[in-house]
Amino acid sequence: MKIIVMFVLLFSFSYSNEALTHSSHKHEKVEATEDVAISKARKSVKILVGEEKLENSWNDAKLLSAEKKQIKGKTEWLVKFENIEVSDSKKKVLYVFLNKYGQYLAANFTGK
C-alpha cells in the first residue's frame, strides 16, 4: 500500500510541475496603448513625488499630451504634464519617458 501511495504522490508532483512550467506558453511583450502609457506615466509621477523628487502638487498635474516618438532609433512614449502651481516657468512642464511597453525610463523638465 505504501508503494502505491508513494507512486501516486510522485506522479502527482511530476505532473503538476509540468503544468506549472507551461512549456508551450510564450511570454510576449505587448506595446502599451496611449491609455496605458498615460496611466503608467501618472503612476511614475506619484512615485517621484513619494521619493520627494517632485513637489506634492505634481500629483494633480494636468495631462498635456501623450505621443509615441522615435528617440535614438527606439520607439518611446513621451507623456507631458503641466503643473500651474509651480512658480519657475522652466519647471511647469514635466516630460515622462516610457519605453514602448510602458515601462518608466526617465522624467525631466527639458523634454530631451
Structure in words:
The protein has about 110 residues and is α+β, with helices and mostly antiparallel strands. The chain has a domain of about 80 residues. It has two helices and four strands, in the order ααββββ. Strands 1-2-3-4 form a four-stranded antiparallel sheet, covered by helices on one side. The longest helix has 20 residues. It starts with a helix and ends with a strand.
Count of helical segments? Answer: 2
Spell the H/E element sequence.
Answer: HHEEEE
Give the CA-based shape: globular
* Residue windows where pLDDT falls under 50 for at least 5 positions: 5-10
**Structural class assignment:** alpha+beta
Tell me the number of strands. Answer: 4
Please report the distance between the alpha carbons of the first and last residues: 72 Å
Helix content: 25-40%
Main sheet, how many strands, which sense, barrel?
Answer: 4 strands, antiparallel
Layout: helices, strands, pairs:
Layout lengths: L1 H20 L12 H17 L11 E10 L2 E9 L10 E7 L4 E5 L4
Entry summary:
The protein contains two helices and four strands. By secondary structure, it is α+β, with helices and mostly antiparallel strands. A four-stranded antiparallel β-sheet has the order 1-2-3-4, covered by helices on one side.
